Amino acid sequence: MKLRYLFALGLLSACGGNPTSGDAADSAVANDDVVNGEAAYLEFCAGCHETGMFGAPVVGDSDYWRGRSTLWQAVLMEHAREGYYDMPARGSRPELSDETINAAVDHMMSVTFPDRPPDQ
User: Fold this and answer.
1) Total domains in the fold of the chain
2) What's this model's pTM, rounded to 2 decimal places?
């Protein structure tokens, strides 16, 4: 049982992307302090959302995402910030800013539903 727990913990830590030195959010921020959603997604979210690890919805698989909340992006951003079921809050990176999390979610939705209108 202990081994299974350690294995699961190791896999969960993979959802947070690769550790970086200094402020983890810096790597996803452009020179103008504008968060790059694609870079944030690739660094902090893709570990689970590219493969479906732990049941994470796969980016680009619109059928999997369709049955989710009609409030879409606002709910998804809240889940990403606070955690949801097996998904750790902020991808197990508590130092990530709300802007970084929101940019990553926005990128995920724009890839999965390229024709969707943005939240107002």
Assistant:
1) 1
2) 0.71
